[in-house]
Automatic annotation (TrEMBL), chain A:
The chain crosses the membrane at residues 12-31, 72-96, 108-132, 144-163, 184-207, 243-264. Its main location: membrane. One of its GO terms (cellular component) is plasma membrane. Belongs to the binding-protein-dependent transport system permease family. This is ABC transporter permease. It comes from Paenibacillus kribbensis. Keywords: Cell membrane, Membrane, Transmembrane, Transmembrane helix, Transport.
Automatic annotation (TrEMBL), chain B:
PANTHER family: ABC TRANSPORTER PERMEASE PROTEIN (PTHR30193), ABC TRANSPORTER PERMEASE PROTEIN YESP-RELATED (PTHR30193:SF1). The keyword Transport applies. It is a multi-pass membrane protein. GO terms for cellular component: plasma membrane. It is found in: Cell membrane. GO terms for biological process: transmembrane transport. Keywords: Cell membrane, Membrane, Transmembrane, Transmembrane helix, Transport. The keyword Mitochondrion does not apply. Signal peptide: none annotated. This is ABC transporter permease. Gene3D superfamilies: MetI-like. The chain crosses the membrane at residues 21-42, 77-98, 110-128, 160-182, 211-237, 270-294. Residues 73-286 form the ABC transmembrane type-1 domain.
């Protein structure tokens, strides 16, 4: 009987404690960003700073190679926005084709698409680099955004699954009313697809914002660098030991990620648990 | 008859029009690059002089003349074979404790998933490096517990452990997929087995695990492939060097260094193909053995 009474409180204490342990590193980084650089490691074991230093955000913002973090954030945003628009439009078109249109070879192309979903990127890394170099695209954002305009297999798969749940009677009714295939896509399916589009947009945002390999390969003048490279440079120039500034900018780089997470929490968690692939 | 042909031609053309971005993209960014990379794997190529055909030279070097390559294979397999199971076990454990009707579950789910959402970023890799630094929080904790602090950046095994811990910490997406699977298991099953007097351990092994096995397979395959491709944490934590003593030289990082730091494009292409074949074999093994351990409910009646 005693167990019955205590079962839930004990459950909550244990689960919450484990959750806090999981989040501890994030809190540690957050509070370190307010510590004075010299004291971060001396006081690594105490979470809260003795004195709150806001200055870290000012020194960190100045960046490491003559450009402020504002430039890097703007660069990252440009890439994220263009790539996301491209990915969402093209993937939804392709998904509509796979889910709603009958044509010869559909299953073949769909199977091929599912295979590319599992293809390790390293195999095409070198030749893609060579192709983009020959095209003269190095040090432009083209290699980072153009491929998105040709559909992302993960998003196509997500949207195909969703479109299949929309009743086919809708299509038939619209077709009888004289609606062409493109109008059917644009007027009927696309508005119903909103939640999938949002999920795809969110994931596209995450992958592009966090991408490091792409920018490292293709961007080589500092004024074009993204937030990821800028943070990496902080680490390389640690002789200056501006630890506080580095943590401050690390936190800043996570703000959009966490903001999007909380704004679209439900969508992300559901998108993840119904068909999630990326870890 | 001709009208019908005309109609089906039209339907085919509409279909292909819609999926044409995929076809073009597939050719341009996947298929043609794959052929190029296959060709390059038999050459030496530094991007500036034309590729020189050397037959199986790259593969020979890889298997007989490059201890660093073997080391990167060993490090990568350790990372995958230790990291992925740990990650999945932890993910399943958390999914099970969160599979209750408590009102707080949504909040907990968010808290446990958060590390994974920020996990791919450079910021988190930088943080991880600092948490494990010689005077970082992990060592403070170890000394407080009376253990000797570990030189995380001096010992190749310790630094690999650090990388694996980071990957386990980001168990969130597998956890959510497990949670969705657990919700689909009917409560009646558990109730019936309670009536039969089954212990919780028994229930776990005879109900939960078998019914969850298709999802375990899915998670196992996806996580294995993505673990083989891990790059950012190794690159950031070791500052691009793969050190100490190549302890964090994951295959992707070694490939990156060969291709873009030493301009051995042909060698890197050969490495990528060997890795692709290894992943394909591993995935095939998982699929083939799955018929012995994956249980599909619909097959019960057959």
């Amino acid at each position: 009987m005693a167990w019955k009474t205590f079962k839930w409180p004990i459950y909550h204490i244990l689960v919450a404690a484990l959750a806090l342990l999981m989040l501890y590193p994030v809190f540690w980084m957050l509070f370190s960003s307010f510590k004075e650089s010299r004291t971060i490691f001396v006081t690594a074991d105490s979470l809260f700073p003795t004195e709150w230093i806001w200055q870290n955000y000012v020194t960190g913002w100045k960046g490491t190679s003559g450009y402020s973090f504002g430039t890097y954030i703007l660069n990252s945003l440009t890439i994220v926005v263009i790539a996301t628009i491209g990915a969402v439009i093209s993937s939804s078109l392709i998904a509509f084709g796979f889910a709603r249109l009958k044509f010869k070879g559909r299953n073949f192309w769909f199977a091929l698409m599912m295979m590319t979903l599992m293809l390790p990127g390293d195999v095409v890394l070198v030749p893609q680099y060579i192709i983009f170099t020959k095209l003269g695209w190095v040090n432009t954002i083209l290699p980072l955004v153009v491929p998105s305009f040709f559909g992302m297999p993960f998003f196509i798969f997500l949207m195909v699954q969703f479109i299949r749940t929309i009743p086919a009677e809708l299509d038939e009714a619209a077709t009888i009313d004289g609606c062409g295939k493109f109008r059917l896509y644009f007027r009927i399916i696309l508005p119903l697809l909103k939640s999938s589009l949002a999920t795809a947009a969110i994931f596209s945002f995450y992958w592009k914002w966090e991408d490091l390999l792409g920018p490292v390969l293709y961007l080589n003048s500092p004024e074009k660098y993204t937030v990821s490279i800028a943070l990496k440079m902080f680490l390389d120039s640690e002789s200056a030991s501006n630890w506080g500034g580095m943590f401050a900018m690390s936190i800043l780089s996570l703000v959009p990620v966490i903001a999007v997470f909380f704004a679209f929490q439900k969508q992300i968690v559901e998108g993840m648990s119904t068909s999630g692939l990326k870890g | 008859m001709s009208l019908r042909n005309h109609q089906s031609l039209r339907a085919n053309m509409t279909g292909y029009a819609f999926i044409s971005p995929f076809i073009v993209g597939f050719l341009a960014f996947t298929l043609i690059p794959m052929f190029i990379s296959l060709y390059l794997s038999f050459t030496t190529y530094n991007l500036f002089t034309p590729p020189k055909w050397i037959g199986l030279g790259n593969f020979e070097k890889m298997f007989t003349g490059d201890p660093k390559y073997w080391n990167s294979i060993r490090v990568t397999f350790t990372y995958v074979l230790v990291g992925v199971p740990l990650r999945l076990i932890f993910a399943l454990f958390v999914a099970m404790i969160l599979n209750t009707k408590s009102r707080m579950v949504g909040t907990y789910r968010t808290m446990y998933y958060l590390p994974s959402i920020i996990g791919g970023s450079v910021a988190v890799s930088i943080m991880w490096r600092n948490i494990f630094s010689n005077d970082g929080i992990v060592n403070s904790l170890l000394s407080a517990l009376g253990a000797t602090p570990v030189k995380w950046f001096g010992d190749p095994n310790a630094s690999l452990t650090m990388l694996i811990t980071l990957s386990v910490w980001q168990f969130g997406s597998s956890m959510l997929i497990f949670l969705a699977g657990l919700k689909n298991i009917s409560v009646e099953m558990y109730e019936a087995s309670s009536v039969d007097g089954a212990s919780p351990v028994r229930k776990f092994f005879s109900i939960t695990l078998p019914l969850l096995s298709p999802i375990i397979l899915f998670n196992l395959i996806m996580q294995t492939i993505s673990a083989f491709m891990t790059f950012v944490p190794a690159y950031v934590i070791s500052k691009g060097e793969g050190g100490p003593m190549d302890g964090t030289m994951l295959h992707s990082l070694y490939l990156f260094r060969q291709a873009f730091m030493f301009s051995n494009m042909g060698y890197a292409a050969a490495m990528a193909w060997v890795m692709l074949i290894m992943i394909a074999i591993l995935t095939a093994i998982l699929f083939l053995t799955s018929r012995y351990w994956v249980f599909y409910e619909t097959e019960k009646g057959r």
